[in-house]
Amino acid sequence: MPGGSDAVLLSIEDITERKHADRQVIELNRELQQRAALLEAANVELEAFSYSVSHDLRAPLRHIDGFADMLRKHVGETLDPTAQRYLNTISASAKRMGTLIDDLLLFSRMGRAEMNRTTVELEQLVEEALAEVQVAGESRNVEWTRAPLPTVEGDRGLLRQVFVNLLSNALKYSRTRDPALIEVGTVPGEVDETIVYVKDNGVGFDMAYAKKLFGVFQRLHGANEFEGTGIGLANVRRIVSRHGGRTWAEGRVGEGATFYFSLPRRTTGVETQFQSAVTQ
Amino acid sequence: MNTGVKRILLVEDSEQDVELTLAALKEAHLANEVDVARDGAEALDYLYRREAFADRPDELPVFVLLDLKMPKLDGIDVLRQMKGDPLLKNVPVVILTSSREEQDLVQSYKLGVNAYVVKPVDFQQFTDSVRRTWLLLGSLERGPELVSVAS
Question: Of A66, A148, B65, B147, which residue is the least packed, with the fewest Cβ within 10 Å?
Fold first, then answer.
């Protein structure tokens, strides 16, 4: 059957190409597996690194503060004011670095913690965050405005942290105002996203520095003006981007600030997990 | 040999931390005898009266202050051994650690730790934590008899 052998020849060529494609798929798969293993290894390393920081880096700081304290008591009244001041600076710096380390560890945990996705009522989160950030018995005059907020899909604990950070910022930077006006609401965005904002009438900021706002330990005010290390907004950005959303801010010096974040209406879990793994 | 002295066992590998913990106990007006073991293996030697501690007094410590990260056997190993031994499991154990890592906390409580103190950078806060832990342990039913002196 000569016609049949022709067909056999043709099909051989087909198989070669398919085999080539098959090989490519196998190759790609292997590459993907390797990458996943690398990512896994990097995560384990990060975990170990963070554990070590938690244990080992804080210990010498405790020693610095502890021994400065003991020295202060040991020499007691004989210490002149300058020496006193030096000792106090040593203690204050050690404590400051302790706070920075704690903040950095928290930031790292925000990125590593496994996401537990559920349906989250944002309004309830705001309620809880408010209870957490309002100082009991404080005599400040704050007028709150709250618009209805939607229900989204996401990690409840992490999203709650977003509101805690944004609301405590709004309170902090409006504390010179009487009354302080703080507003939580939504604005229309793309069809498939929810945009939430927190607005205050506080000291505001220069838009020229808007890009720096969400960086780790980035601050636009001196430490003696407003306390803090500058980790809050970095955490907000990290959490929101893990949810597949965006963060941005608008403000003017002396005229308040508005912080926005978006969340996709329907998140495809795999995609955002992959994104967050890559950006870490 | 029963001396009647209430002893605390402090298990801590860092010399600076030993000194600071003793200072904190003193500052909190807690005047018990403190014996020091430098790592987890020494701690078990002490508790089982062997090796360098074969001659220590009979009674067990009123409680054990235990660091977590140590050479040889770490704090978790010591805790596991103590809480698994009918002779030692009633000795209260207080973990004293730098770490705020959740995994340590969870594991310690799973193993039956009696208190868990994260040592803050601030020495005065540390003294306060030691004092509070002391009160907590003292208030437990069948809690340890502790020696506390007023300022």
Answer: A148
Let me know if B82 is exposed, middle or buried by CB neighbors in 10 A (0-12, 13-18, 19+): buried
Distance, CA of B2 to CA of A276 (rounded, Å): 62
Residue B50, CB-side half-sphere exposure with 13 Å CA sphere:
6
| Total CB pairs under 8 A between chain A and B | 60
A116 phi-psi bin (left φ>0, alpha ψ -120 to 50, beta other): beta
A182 in Cβ contact with A200 (< 8 Å): yes
The total of other beta-carbon atoms located within 10 Å of residue A242's CB is 23
B123–A69 C-beta distance less than 8 A: yes
The Cα–Cα gap between A91 and A129 comes to 32
Q: Is A176 helix (H, G, I), strand (E, B) or coil?
A: coil
Give CA separation, A24 vs A21, A55, B70, in Å.
5, 46, 50
Among the partner-chain residues B20, B68, B121, the one whose CB lies closest to the CB of A95 is B121
Facing A95 at nearest CB: one of B17, B20, B122: B122
Tell me which residue in A56, A66, A94 faces B20 most closely, judged by beta carbons: A66
Three-state SS at A109: helix
- Cα dihedral A74/A80/A83/A85 (nearest 10): 110
pLDDT tens-digit profile, chain B (151 residues): 455 567 889 999 999 999 999 988 888 777 678 999 999 999 999 999 998 888 888 888 888 999 998 888 999 999 999 999 999 999 999 999 887 778 889 999 999 999 898 888 888 888 888 888 887 777 654 445 555 544 3
ipTM here? 0.78
CB contact under 8 A, A65 and B123: yes
